[in-house]
Amino acid sequence: MKKITLILTIVLLLGNYSLPLASQQTKPKNCKRNTTKVVKSNKQDTIKQEIVKKDTTAKLEDRDIVFDLKRLNLMASLSVYGQKDYEGSGRVVVAVDIDEEGLFRKLEIKESTNKKLNLPAIKVIQEYGKKYNIQAAVKNGVPVYTEDLIVPVEFDMDRFKD
What we know:
Blueprint: H1 2-15, H2 22-25, E1 31-39, E2 45-53, H3 69-80, E3 90-98, E4 104-112, H4 118-131, E5 137-139, E6 142-144, E7 146-155
């Protein structure tokens, strides 16, 4: 043990090297450590560690918001199937605003053939968004706020008749 301490002391004195501190030895997540030599004016070499962060601002691919209307209409019809208040068929057109995080901010009825189906249409669109993880539209690599996305919801009770 004495030999190792003596050797380390001699190396540090003669070579004028510095040991990294414990706080310098741990590296943060998503970083890599580059070791470079820096020559000082008195011509003694020291080791310098620099932390280089990885590029975490990767651009997203452009995408639009897509609703599978066939699935949405089936969900709508199933949501009111068998309830006497909602007998018959109908169509409800809803304007949807979706923010940069993919959350529905505004759902507004634009047109309706059966006023009783307005509330079920809004509930179905919200349920569809949660189930199929609707995400915000992306333009030029940045998520954008989408206003007045028109979503037609068809309630067709005839599809369940024999």
